[in-house]
Amino acid sequence: MFGTLLAIALIAGILGVVVWISLWLSRRADQKAYEALRQSQETSVIRCTRDRYLTPAEAGKYNAIREQIEQEKPEINAHIQEQMDRNRFSL
Fold this sequence. Notes:
By secondary structure, this protein is mostly helical. The protein folds into two domains: about 1-45; about 55-90. The protein has helices at about 1-45, 55-90.
């Protein structure tokens, strides 16, 4: 009886180690995938910082561009929606 219990305990211990190793490996793979995603996002975003305030001329230029974008948004969104509808119905 002692030998049977010992064998069961040994098998349970081995299975526990196998489960622990598989969990560790899956977490490690998830961590590597997360790190790769984070690095790709970091390299794709370029941050522009300044050590001064914008001059009124520079601010006016940026504000004009922002206003132009706001005016063109409905047209751009309609174009995108048209393309999506065209692709959806062509399937």
